[in-house]
Target: DUF1868 domain-containing protein
Amino acid sequence: MANPTEAAPKPDLPHPEYPKWIGRKFEPDGTLLPFPGNTIICHLSPERAMYRAMLGLHDALKSHKFASQYTLLPPQSWHMTIFEGVTDQIREPHVWPADLPLDASLDMCTDLFREKLKNFDFGSEAPFHMTIVSYDPLVDGIALKVVPATPADEARLRGLRKRLSELLQMYHPAQDKYSFHMSLAYILRRLDDQQHQELWDFLEEYRSKLPIHFALGAPEFCTFDNMFAFSRQFFLGAKC
Model:
């Protein structure tokens, strides 16, 4: 049986050729598809040096010879997920709140989360300090792999995820092993070995132009219709 948290391509898309989100989040040609849901994230502020540095990487990827193999995410969407919410298309016990029927509407779920989160004290002060360590494997997308910069930041983020899991009654199978990251692009077709190596080498070389450390502000409860924009409803800890 497949992992219920894993998406699968549409039946008419050859699975070995297409990454798992093609046919759900994007068409094979990169056309954006509806994929509504909600989430808790930290946007990367345009005021940060990290944002400005990533603009250079974004432009370099736009002009790279393998640019037709992936679709870039717009800079205003850049973020790090603090806690995965729900998506309308994936309804399984581990990725849907335990106190809400699986056939409840997405709006009902968002309203439930809004009510629970509006007075939530996330028990910490921004910013969160993060460190870039590498990139996620080039399987489904291009993403910076990041980790908390200090043991204190690690404890704050892991503790926050645990408290949100209890509050929202969602228990992801890999919750304690969640890998923090910031996505830049979704890969449209599987890369062959040569493409993979060339793109990886390019990304690794460019990493020297990015700050090693960066900071993120307060977590935000957001809704989204697709992967291009995440609409802030409110900051956690703010009086609604």
